[in-house]
Queue: 2 jobs
Job 1
Amino acid sequence: MDLLDTLVAKGLSRELPTREEAIAVLATSDEELLDVVAAAGRVRRHWFGRRVKLNYLVNLKSGLCPEDCSYCSQRLGSTAGILKYTWLKPEEAADAAAAGVAGGAKRVCLVASGRGPTDRDIDRVADTIAAIKGQSEGVEVCACLGLLSDNQAERLRAAGADAYNHNLNTSGDNYAEICTTHDFQDRVDTVQQAQAAGLSACSGLIAGMGESDADLVDVVFSLRELDPDSVPVNFLIPFEGTPLAKEWNLTPQRCLRILAMVRFVCPDVEVRLAGGREVHLRTLQPLALHLANSIFLGDYLTSEGQAGQADLDMIADAGFEVEGTDRTTLPQHRTAAAGHGGCGPCGGEESSSCATASAPACAPAEAATDAGPTAEPVTAGAARTDLVQVRRRGAGTDLPPNA
Ligand code: SF4
């Protein structure tokens, strides 16, 4: 296909595709899907080989947010039955982080709900970073605390943070449809503050919120312009109790096309497969490893992910390898330009972002959890509320985390 040959050539030379080419990727048919994955996979392997970086989320403060992001189970007015708790103590966060590091994660993403941190919150996070780095040598730490005020990014950097996550989530034109308490430019400003302070920027998107193909392409082009080091791609988990609870409009094939488009537009950045992968990609998750070079290990902020061992098995079975702390994630031309200490490319989670990890308090609806021989076939794009599990273990509970 001429389109794919063109996109591979551009991806290998870091040339920006046209918007029309990016939209054309999203418009490819299911019959063309493996060709699309193979083409974007060439770009992925060129810049990142077969390495998969593992990242681990620690939700420092959960729920009770005054903002109204419609996709978020922690939003103002959310009735999702998520865990709600205030700041973890530094040692509690460090213990949770250590479980992720022991499971193979080289980055820990510290996330807190809320519009943005107070200066006292920055002190708390600084203490937490110190506790984590004291306990887990060589680990990268990314903070995701919302909108930053003057000098807060510099204070996080001085405290040892390697990266800062703040997702753009959707296009500037669509932003008012998903949130009214802050705007797109607020988010751009925070990412730029982090970059100016020497933090590796992590910023991504959420797909499946009812946006158009043009919106998806627009937000990815905005990200390319912003030039974060890592781009988490989240797939909306439609939590019961949030305004987007009925937005079940993704299929595994659609998710792969979105990831391929992101890889073509942002060829040499860490593209992270983030929240919603288990729910929307389901059995096609291994194909996504040909597109993304990074995933979250274990649970998300408010929802449970698949078992950490299942992730490790999937990576090995698909012929990929977990990236060790001795490897730098990003290509040399990006780390040389960034000048971040020697932490490698730091750059970013959540989707970690407070925007992603969501988890609904779903009712098992009509779906059967026993997919035995008499189970009905699953319709692509159907609501899979049975796959959404509210997090009930790890940070904020007495149960050990999933890693
Ligand atoms: S995404 Fe972040 S800022 Fe928005 S409602 Fe959720 S926790 Fe609050």
Job 2
Amino acid sequence: MKLKLKLLGSIVVISIVIAMVAGYLVYQEEKEPCGRSVWYTFEDYTSHAAWEGVANEESPVFTPDKYMKKPFDFNGYENIKFSDDKLEETRSDDKTETELPLHTGYPYQLFIFKITSENVKSISVKWEGLGYFFYSIPELTGAAVYVWNKTLCNWTEIGGYSNKTGKQIITCSLTNPSDFMDNGFISILAYCKILGGGESTSHLETDYVEVKTVS
Ligand SMILES: [Ca+2]
């Protein structure tokens, strides 16, 4: 009788453990229905790359390679790898002397991320920075962020702002990642919307930029 009770007790204990493990596994399955998230930042700038330049057009019209004017240097990458109020600046008078008209245009920064995630279901982009002609006059501020859409062969604007002073954060989630991943690369363009001219320079500054993929 004692042996039977012991056996019954053991069966009950084992059943409870199995039920708990099964419950835990179901919970894990429900807890992560969206899969795995991976963040890409310029902490790793051997995989990703950034350039800066000054454009003549009010909005981007060329393919990403045309915006690869001046590569970021070490300090440039250091400034954009964290959201820490250390900003990398590009000014409208940063043009080389061979480019005319001198000191006129829209400063921009191009960020290209190499994405190694597989079966990507969505892409989120975050940019922190500012564009301005006069930092302290809201009417003279403005920037926009674009992502290269290889399907449309054009830049898709994912956000922008104007009439605000201080650092701004622009975020966007893209649910059709195949349009934006070009051979595993995503191109993001931050663009000052204020024309700089002569000695009155306009500025584009980036504090931080990141891409998150969900697979
Ligand atoms: Ca920073």
